[in-house]
Amino acid sequence: MADAKKITETVVKGITLTLTPEEAEIVLTLTGNLQGDRVSSPRKFADKVYYALNAAGVKPTFQAHLSGSLRLTNSPKISSYPAF
């Protein structure tokens, strides 16, 4: 027997995230030390976060704790990233 179900999908258009100053500093430090193409890799989204935090006056105080950088490769399907 055939079965039909109505599927409703919710679309999130934006997210507001409240961070402590230290949390904002680590996010700025991490997003400011990503490698990858600024146009065709997920880095384009990280750059937007970095510049928004920078414009808000956040400083990369955790820079001395870095031992390298993260490399983001080109990703044709950004939506395929796993959820945490």
Regions with little confidence, pLDDT below 50 for 5+ residues: 75-84
Structural class: mainly alpha
Strand order of the largest sheet: 1-2
Strand percentage: under 5%
User: For the CA atoms, what is the radius of gyration?
Assistant: 17 Å
Straight-line N-to-C gap = 37 Å
Q: Based on DSSP secondary structure assignment, what is the total number of beta strands?
A: 2
Order of helices and strands: HEHE
The percentage helix is 25-40%
Largest sheet: 2 strands, parallel
Tally of contiguous helical segments: 2
- Average predicted local confidence, pLDDT: 81
Query: Per the principal axes of the C-alpha atoms, what is the gross shape?
Result: elongated
Written account of the structure:
The chain has two helices and two strands, in the order αβαβ. With 84 residues, it is mainly alpha-helical. A two-stranded parallel sheet has the order 1-2. Helix 1 (21-31) crosses helix 2. The chain is elongated, with a radius of gyration of 17 Å. The N and C termini lie far apart (37 Å).
Keywords summarizing the entry:
2 helices; disordered C terminus; 84 residues; mainly alpha; single chain; two-stranded parallel sheet
Question: What does the secondary structure layout of this molecule look like, with pairings?
Answer:
Elements: H1 21-31, E1 34-35, H2 43-55, E2 70-71
Parallel strand pairs: 1-2
Helix pairs in contact: 1-2
